[in-house]
UniProtKB/TrEMBL annotation:
The lineage of its organism: Eukaryota, Metazoa, Ecdysozoa, Arthropoda, Hexapoda. This is Vacuolar protein sorting-associated protein 41 homolog. CHCR repeats lie at residues 568-711. Belongs to the VPS41 family. Gene3D superfamilies: Tetratricopeptide repeat domain, YVTN repeat-like/Quinoprotein amine dehydrogenase. The gene is Dere\GG21404. Coiled coil: none annotated. It comes from the Eukaryota. It is a peripheral membrane protein. One of its GO terms (biological process) is protein targeting to vacuole. One of its GO terms (molecular function) is zinc ion binding.
Length: 841
């Protein structure tokens, strides 16, 4: 088996432009098993990678075949010394099917070996160094063609006699350094650049010149050629990479002369910071490049090689990631000691060094997840699992993520993650919640705890959350009591906890919490007391919601103190609480009783308690007393009069005495004159009662006070003869404005006489006019028809065939034959008289 590499921090370090911790593209394994024995005894000089196996050439000229795990594979290469070279193997190539292998060496030999058949084996000797050889990749059966490069590019083909015939394809500047064959195109490198040969047209498509490095020779660097598809060639040489497309010429290009059908068109050229040791395609625009660093260590030795993922564009590139690899003996190697092979279909690449072989595999989902988790990129790991699946469950990553967030003290983020991941799993919730208990951060997760019937946790969990809030955040504790359903926890236990941890600085919040908890427990009286202590108006909502009207009978005064208007909305409703109970409770607070009875009077003007309002109005709001006395009749006048006398409420006393009449009315007039001292009021009082005794008392009083004579004269008109008033005036008495008052009085009487005379004349005129109309109307003829019947004989009043029809018709409408009522004739209708008698009986 292949040995896993040591931890990546020791074997491969990943770099990016911003020196951030970037997710790696590859995971690495070092090949061992049987290969390890070969590496201990020999040095690898070249390699070839096939989908089925690996082949390595060594410094001693041997060629070995292994499976992809480094185990030896039995083949013709392993059981014969004939097909080995005398010196180091320079190049190895494998046909598409994996049946033949071509090798070459500085011993001048080129060997074509069938791995499992010797039918088409060849061994050619050139007598000079042979650096490269390539098999036809499109062979359908046995090997028919292969290419060899020395100072010429030679194609060997089988003729009809099954013999190899060499064909010189092209002369070369210097020697052929590298060959890569794909389809009908052969790409090779010489000392000045790269050419592509078209086997169909038997011509070169042109030279791609390469820039010669300063102080170096181009041939001292291995040229790495790779076909990424049928028409795309990748070239990596020295520190430059070029991507070329083999395309057909367009009509304009083809018309310029006899040119090849195809042309090599470079689409991207860019430099790297290292020397290229191999390259392979990764995706449409990405390459995997093995690099040898240009810099040296402080001891002037080679640095570790790098494996880069490069994304290329038109004429520039971007390094996606770079892994620096620790291979055995890397300090002693040169740029040409490394090579890169790959199985593109499986995104697996082999980094080959003289004494070490490492496999770089494109990192798989599980590897990515493991790396992301290791580097605390949990969110990305969870997204990856959700999109592609994996052996590690999302829940396991989520738990690690929660632990990580808690360690970073990101408690709210951890709580949100619980909500997103744990769903309605009760056991998972309880397991994760206890992690918050350890760091005393249950407050952070409280908003996300499940509270529905589908997922209800153990009551102890919710109680722990409440206790923590009670200890550290009383306002948050109150909010939870309001938000959480009461069945989630033991309410009595929480109530006891509040009492045990009651703090005066948080009295309001704790009292409100107790009120809510008592309500949840059904102890509404205790809840009301808490609200009242708190002076919280929610108490009224609680009373209405639970109809606690029986409970409030002993809490009426505190309720009024809290909010009189809201309290009276309840107390004035007789269907909820009896008026007698309210009045009894308010007897000891006369002001509240006054407010209540005053409001009750507006809603129920006939209530039996309104008589209490007389003393209450007298004490708290006298302005309402007189209107109440006038409007209401349901009180004791004597009691009311007594209260008014005590308080010297003269207008109220005048009204009450006036209602009593007689002597009391005279007392009222006396109060008006002597206490109130309002003559207009006295005159109005006399007019209202229109009593001669009252008028005489008033007139007698004015004679003592000349200054009020004129007012009396003006007020008695229509009630008392002015002569009576004038007669009371003493001779020589000085009365201000008497002349004007007498003139005004006489003018008024004169005007009154004229009015009476005119009214009498109008009345007489109306009488005679109406009398005339009645007489005329009664003399007018009345229509009588044949259908009318005599009210006595009940026959038609008009007799046919009779010369004279004598009938009598009354104003009431009844009609009689004259003969029928002879002897009975009266002023009134007989029928109507009978009806009136019946009604009277």
């Amino acid at each position: 088996m292949a040995n896993s590499l040591p931890p990546m921090s020791c074997v491969a370090e990943t770099y990016s432009k911003n020196e951030e911790d970037v997710e790696p593209k590859f995971k690495y394994q070092r090949l061992a098993n049987d290969l390890k024995n070969i590496l201990n005894a020999d040095v690898i000089t070249c390699s070839a990678v096939h989908l089925k196996f690996l082949i390595f050439g060594t410094f001693r000229g041997r060629v070995y075949i292994f499976d992809h795990q480094g185990n030896s594979v039995y083949s013709n290469l392993s059981n014969s010394e004939r097909y080995t070279h005398k010196v180091a193997v320079n190049n190895i190539d494998i046909d598409h099917k994996g049946e033949y292998v071509a090798t070459c060496s500085d011993d001048g030999k080129v060997n074509i070996t069938g791995l499992f058949s010797c039918e088409s084996n060849h061994s050619l000797s050139f007598g000079k160094f042979i650096k490269v050889v390539s098999l036809d990749p499109d062979s359908k059966a046995h090997i028919k063609r292969f290419a060899v490069g020395d100072d010429k590019l030679i194609l060997y083909e089988r003729n009809l006699l099954n013999k190899l015939k060499p064909v010189e394809l092209c002369s070369v500047e210097g020697s052929v350094l590298s060959i890569c064959w794909h389809g009908n195109f052969i790409a090779w490198a010489s000392h000045i650049g790269v050419r592509v040969y078209d086997l169909n047209e038997r011509c070169s498509l042109g030279l791609i010149k390469w820039e010669v490095p300063s102080e170096e020779r181009l041939e001292n660097f291995r040229c790495h050629l790779r076909w990424s598809n049928n028409h795309t060639l990748l070239i990596g040489w020295v520190d430059t990479i070029r991507v070329c497309v083999i395309r057909k010429r367009d009509s304009i290009e083809a018309s310029t002369g006899k040119l090849p059908v195809y042309i090599v068109d470079p689409i991207s050229t860019f430099q790297t910071t290292f020397y290229v040791c191999g390259l392979a395609p990764l995706s449409v625009k990405q390459l995997v490049v093995l690099g040898y660093r240009k810099e040296k260590s402080s001891s002037f030795k080679a640095l570790r090689p790098v494996l880069c993922v490069i994304e290329y564009k038109m004429n520039n590139s971007e390094e996606i990631c770079t892994d620096s690899l620790t291979l055995r003996g890397f300090e002693e190697y040169t740029v040409n000691d490394y090579s890169l092979g790959g199985i593109i279909e499986e995104n697996r690449f082999y980094i080959v060094a003289p004494k070490d072989i490492v496999v770089a595999s494109l990192i798989e989902t599980d590897d990515r997840i493991e790396w992301l988790v290791k580097h605390s990129k949990f969110e990305e790991a969870m997204e990856l699992i959700a999109a592609n699946g994996g052996n590690m469950p999302v829940l396991s990553v989520a738990k690690l993520y929660i632990n990580h967030l808690l360690a970073l003290k990101k408690y709210d983020d951890a709580a949100k993650l619980c909500l997103r991941i744990l769903g309605n799993d009760k056991d998972l919730w309880e397991e994760e919640v206890f992690k918050f208990v350890k760091c005393q951060q249950l407050r952070s997760v409280s908003a996300y705890l499940p509270t529905s019937n589908e997922c209800k946790l153990d009551p102890h969990v919710y109680e722990m959350v409440l206790y923590e809030f009670l200890k550290f955040d009383v306002c948050g504790f109150l909010n939870l009591i309001k938000e959480w359903p009461s069945h989630l926890y033991d309410g009595l236990a929480v109530i006891n906890a509040i009492h045990d941890n009651f703090r005066k600085q948080h009295a309001n919040q704790l009292l409100e919490s107790l009120a809510l908890l008592y309500s949840y427990q059904g102890d509404f009286e205790s809840a009301l007391r808490m609200y009242l202590k708190l002076q919280n108006k929610d108490v009224f909502q609680l009373i209405r919601r639970y109809e606690l009207y029986d409970v409030i009978s002993k809490l009426i005064i505190p309720l009024i103190q809290l909010d009189r208007e809201c309290a009276f909305e309840i107390l004035l409703d007789k269907t909820k609480i009896m008026t007698e109970i309210v009045v009894h409770q308010l007897e000891h607070n006369q002001e509240y009783l006054y407010w209540y009875l005053d409001s009750l009077l507006k809603k129920d003007p006939s209530n039996v308690f309104q008589k209490k309002l007389i003393s209450l109005y007298a004490f708290f709001d006298r302005k309402k007393l007189l209107p109440f006395l006038v409007r209401s009749k349901d009180y004791d006048i004597q009691e009311a009069l007594f209260i008014c006398k005590q308080e010297n409420f003269y207008p109220e006393m005048v009204y009450l005495l006036g209602c009593m009449g007689g002597v009391e009315a005279a007392e009222a007039l006396n109060i008006i004159i002597h206490s109130i001292k309002d003559i207009e009021m006295a005159i109005e009082f006399c007019k209202e009662h229109d009593d001669n005794d009252l008028w005489n008392a008033l007139i007698n009083e004015f004679s003592k006070h000349p200054e009020i004579v004129t007012k009396v004269l003006e007020g008695i008109v229509d009630y008392v003869s002015p002569a009576v008033v004038v007669g009371k005036i003493k001779m020589g008495q000085n009365i201000p404005n008497l002349r004007q008052s007498l003139i005004k009085m006489l003018w008024h009487y004169n005007l009154q006489g004229e009015i009476l005379s005119s009214a009498q004349q109008i009345k007489l005129n109306d009488y005679f006019e109406i009398h005339s109309e009645i007489v005329t109307k009664q003399r007018r003829g009345q229509q009588v028809s044949y259908e009318q019947l005599c009210s006595l004989c009940h026959r038609s009043v008009l007799m046919i065939g009779t010369y004279s029809n004598c009938i009598i018709r009354f104003v009431c409408g009844h009609v009689y034959h004259k003969p029928c009522i002879q002897g009975k004739l009266q002023k009134n209708c007989i029928e109507c008289n009978l009806w009136n008698l019946t009604v009277e009986k």
